[in-house]
Amino acid sequence: PYVIGGACIDVMDKSCMEECPVDCIYVGDRKLYIHPRECIDCGACEPVCPVEAIAQDRMLDAEDEPHIDDATTFFYEILPGRNEPVGSPGGSHNVGDLKVDTPFVASLPPNG
Ligand code: F3S
Ligand code: F3S
């Protein structure tokens, strides 16, 4: 799948969301997350991000590699303050802004 890296943190431009044909880009608190099982690898989101935060997993910069596993954490582990995993809602607009991040993203310093 495609993955959103650290450049999105505290920026959250959201242009990517409008391009995704399967609505698999979900809104956290400081960052957006691409659903690793819902993404169909179409690549439409990548060129529209103004801070070039998005890449296919195998093309990510080394410093962004933790965001690959972190995307799985976001959807399939229980995030702080929630009772169950986000799972696979089948569309970001079905769930709205989730207003939560993974512990990894929450721990990162302010961006920009
Ligand atoms: Fe983030 Fe870029 Fe999308 S800043 S919200 S990945 S357009
Ligand atoms: Fe959507 Fe980007 Fe995947 S547009 S399908 S998240 S490659």
Key traits:
112 residues, Alpha-Beta Plaits, 4 helices, 4 strands, 11% strand, binds FE3-S4 cluster
Strand content: 5-15%
The fold-level CATH name is Alpha-Beta Plaits
| Rg computed from alpha carbons, rounded to a whole number of angstroms | 13 Å
The CA-CA distance between the termini, in Å, is 26 Å
Describe the structure.
The protein is an alpha+beta fold and 112 residues long. The protein has one domain: Alpha-Beta Plaits, CATH 3.30.70. The chain contains 4 helices and 4 strands. The strands form 2 sheets. The protein has a two-stranded antiparallel sheet. Strands 2-3 form a two-stranded antiparallel sheet. Strand 2 and strand 3 (32-34) form a beta hairpin. The longest helix is centred in the middle third of the chain and has 11 residues, at 66-76. The N and C termini lie far apart (26 Å). One FE3-S4 cluster binds at residues 4, 8, 11-16, 32, 49, 51, 53-54.
